[in-house]
Amino acid sequence: MKVSCLCGQTKFEAELKNHHVHACHCSMCRQQSSGVLMSVDIEPSSLKFVEQEHLSLFQSSEWGERGFCNHCGTSLFWRTQDGSYCNINVFALQQQPEDLKLTTEIYIDNKPDFYQFKYSTEQLTEADVVALFSKDEEK
Hints:
Family: Belongs to the Gfa family.
CATH class: Mainly Beta
Organism: Acinetobacter celticus
Pfam families: GFA (PF04828)
Strand order of the largest sheet: 6-7-8-9-4-3-10-11
Keywords: Lyase, Metal-binding, Zinc
Protein name: S-(Hydroxymethyl)glutathione synthase
Distance between the termini: 29 Å
Largest sheet: 8 strands, mixed
CATH architecture: Beta Complex
Structural class: mainly beta
Shape: globular
């Protein structure tokens, strides 16, 4: 799949793991995107940059980093620092698959009360997410 920022200065290709969309309600994603960040998982090794002169990385936690275009500010991806997991902004896909489906909401215990989605999703708390990534580190 081809992925691009708003201005087109940062471009890459990636292979989607599936067509499941995740919504993150953590305070960092909400602050960075001015809303909910919606992403899809990719095969981490499939991330291939085509244009990266304006790509910047921000270490947002002990184990995660965010990739964004420093020219237009588009949030492009989040990945573990060890490269074992990566997801991309679903709206940065140049062509979205027709069968995308919102399946999971993470950091649900951080979600403000003033919005909610129409469809039922799997809902993971902050502790659930931390436990998932802690399990991956133990392998």
